[in-house]
Design goal:
With 80 residues, this protein is mainly alpha-helical. Strands 1-2 form a two-stranded antiparallel ribbon. β1 and β2 form a beta hairpin. α1 runs antiparallel to α2. The relative contact order is 0.12.
Length: 80
């Protein structure tokens, strides 16, 4: 009985460790993507979005600055 109990506990501990490892990897990937996005936005250049009509609209300098700020906040939040 004790052997079965220890074996069950070991299997559960391994599952928890694997789940924690997967969560850590997912957070690292999200952090890397957020940092890349922030760096890409900060690199400069014109940015465009598609509006409701499907037409491309270039963002103003204020909109670009807002996008950069939001991307940096997201990167900071994900990279804790």
């Amino acid at each position: 009985m004790e052997f079965r109990k220890r074996r069950l506990e070991r299997v559960e501990a391994e599952k928890k460790a694997e789940k924690a490892r997967e969560e850590t990897e997912a957070r690292k990937k999200a952090c890397d993507e957020a940092r890349s996005r922030a760096a890409g936005l900060a690199a400069g250049g014109r940015m465009a979005r598609y509006d409701a009509n499907g037409e491309r609209r270039f963002l103003t300098d204020e909109e670009i600055a807002s996008e950069i700020t939001n991307a940096r906040k997201q990167a900071d939040m994900l990279c804790k």
